[in-house]
Design goal:
binds phosphoenolpyruvate, binds magnesium ion, Glucose Oxidase, domain 1, single chain, eight-stranded mixed beta sheet, 4 domains, alpha/beta, eight-stranded parallel beta barrel, Enzyme I, Chain A, domain 2, 587 residues
Length: 587
């Protein structure tokens, strides 16, 4: 891709999996695992930078010698040896030459040149099969960090992450994604990840172009390389030619035009041409997404993933702090609803508390409503906070990962208990608070007729429902091919849930990622879904799709789909109808 000393850069296309639409054009910023990058800025005097590097090396060596002496004095020569190894690294000629070359060729500050060189070493070492060598990465990190600290403060900083950039990383956790400074972010690309991971979902919600599955990207891509990220086709294009840049600028402005046109219709009802109204609401993870929801024209929030509150600390915030966040959201959305999902931690999500030992199968383990029921004090704090917020707007509560009726009853019993407590304390709340259940475990879908009389609504979590129905991990790219939203079993379970709800007067919505896939809007409407809850950025497209479709035609399509044995055929059937009515939205 690029060598520091190397030949003139050539346009290189890295192909990955697209997970969030959009085009970003900016220099790349690479973050190595567990290692914070120093700031980067341009330097005029390369020689002066080399001198700074030399000085930092010297200072670091001196510190290591002193450390070695101290350790030797305390616990003997053996333990001090590690610092000798560290000192040897500082004398590694190849490393020093590469850093000096980077300073010269790229005109970058010394600490950043060092960081870039070291990070390549680190990534290479992480991939060697020899466990001993792999473990040595920690030593290199250690020395590098020490070296970086020894450069001292600098000013006149320009460029780097304070400028627009495309982030390239091995992986990003949902918390990394949530914590990103989005003002300067043009997109991100990771080596691992999948379409249904929470990081990808968050990227779509926030409208950040994203590509995952870019093999060896961290190893091969250098910070500051000019690049384009194409979140439509899953490409990261390095050193784009003038022609490529021109083409992508054209695509980007075209897409932005369409987007603005769609957003301009934010007040239009999500209603089919033959008059069936669909509640189109938004999924949010963070309070900060509220303006996006408003701007999208969504009618409220159909899924608020409260586990993201865990990002603020090690545990869920207390009752009053939660109540404050929920109430502000409820007020801002009123009279549209705010459906608050109770804590859904564990599995691929944030842990609610450290476990004494790792679970053998986290996806089948202690997660969702199971955690809440096992921690009633914590659960009641959340329920009381939700109830408090219900005095400020139209609030509903729903429970994740329900697998059977006992969990529904237990959860509802605790809701009643909280209501009684608040009443005796004189705290106002909505006595008719709607209660719903997420249908995302096949057993719950199969007994939806038994659950329906106990709740006001169902919200189908297709992300998990698919994974559990077809026994395919939603974040494992090796089996991504098997993860099929249109699998006949999934379609049947959705239909069964909707029918069971209808039979008992409970409405059914879909809040999984399937709801935002406009190829499948005809199928979902045809199956009888009453609500779709999607990432804020997807709302305008889904609304347009709904407004062009006839419900009668969708229902006929769903009948046909329910008889079809093959997922690809079902996908094709639905896509055909989508193509007929809104081809311009599909690419
Ligand atoms: C789902 O499983 O479809 C869902 C909406 O919940 P989450 O993605 O948060 O698991
Ligand atoms: Mg789920």
């Amino acid at each position: 891709m690029e060598s520091i000393a190397g030949t003139p850069p050539q346009e290189t296309v890295l192909q990955g999996i697209p997970v969030s639409r959009g085009i970003g054009i900016a220099p790349v910023h690479v973050i190595a695992r567990g290692f914070a990058a120093p700031e980067v800025y341009e330097v005029d005097d390369a020689e002066a930078e080399k001198v700074r590097f030399e000085a930092a090396l010297k200072r670091t060596k001196q510190q290591l010698v002193e450390l070695q002496e101290r350790i030797k004095a305390i616990s003997g020569a053996e333990d001090g040896m590690i610092f000798e190894a560290h000192q040897m690294m500082l004398e590694d000629r190849a490393m020093i030459d590469q850093v000096n070359a980077a300073i010269e060729k790229r005109g970058q500050n010394a600490e950043f040149a060092l960081y870039a060189v070291i990070q390549n070493y680190l990534e290479a070492m992480r991939r060697v099969p020899d466990p001993y060598l792999r473990e040595r990465t920690a030593d290199i990190e250690d020395v590098c960090q020490r070296l970086l600290r020894n450069f001292g403060p600098e000013d006149h900083r320009v460029g780097g992450p304070d400028e627009r950039h495309i982030l390239v990383a091995y992986d990003l956790s949902p918390s990394d994604t949530a914590a990103m400074d989005r003002r300067h972010l043009s997109g991100f690309a990771t080596e691992i990840g999948s379409v249904n991971s929470h990081t990808a979902i968050l990227a779509r919600s926030l409208g950040i172009p994203a590509v995952v599955g870019l093999q060896k990207a961290v190893l091969n891509v250098r910070t500051l390389t000019p690049a384009i990220i194409d979140g439509y086709s899953g490409k990261l294009i390095l050193h784009p030619t003038a022609e490529t840049l021109e083409r992508y600028r054209g695509i980007r402005s075209e897409k932005e035009k369409v987007r603005h046109e769609l957003e301009a219709q934010r007040d239009a009802e999500a209603v089919t041409t033959d008059g069936r109204k669909i509640t189109l609401s938004a999924n949010i993870e963070l309070f900060e997404e509220l303006p996006l929801v408003k701007n999208s024209g969504a009618r409220g929030v159909g899924l608020y993933r409260t586990e993201f509150l865990l990002l603020k600390g090690e545990q869920m915030p207390g009752e009053m702090e939660q109540a404050e966040v929920y109430s502000r959201l409820a007020k801002a959305l009123d009279p549209d609803p705010l459906i608050i999902r109770t804590l859904d931690a564990g599995g691929d999500k944030l842990p609610v508390e450290p476990l004494s030992e790792p679970e053998p199968n986290p996806f089948l383990g202690w997660r969702g409503i199971r955690v809440s029921i096992d921690r009633p004090a914590m659960f009641k704090e959340q329920l009381r906070a939700i109830l408090r917020a219900s005095a400020h707007g139209k609030v509903a509560v729903m429970f994740p990962l329900v697998s059977g009726i006992r969990e529904v009853r237990e959860a509802r019993k605790l809701v009643r208990e909280c209501m009684a407590e608040l009443k005796s304390e004189g705290v106002p709340f909505d006595e008719n608070l709607e209660t719903g259940v997420m249908i995302e475990v096949p057993s719950a879908a199969v007994i939806a007729d038994l659950i329906a009389p106990e709740v006001d609504f169902f919200s189908i979590g297709t992300n998990d429902l698919i994974q559990y129905t077809v026994a395919t991990d939603r974040v494992n790219h090796r089996v991504a091919e098997l993860y099929r939203p249109t699998h006949p079993a999934v379609i049947r379970l959705i239909k069964q849930t909707i029918d069971a709800g209808l039979g008992a007067g409970a409405w059914t919505g879909v809040c999984g990622e399937m709801a935002g896939d406009i190829r499948l809007t005809p199928l979902l409407l045809g199956l009888g879904v009453e609500e779709l809850s999607v990432g804020p950025h997807q709302v305008p497209r889904v609304r347009r799709a709904i407004r062009t479709l006839s419900h009668a035609e969708c229902a006929a399509l769903a009948d046909q789909a329910l008889k079809s044995p093959l997922s690809l055929d079902i996908l094709e059937l639905s896509t055909d109808l989508a193509r007929k009515y809104y081809p311009e939205l599909l690419d």
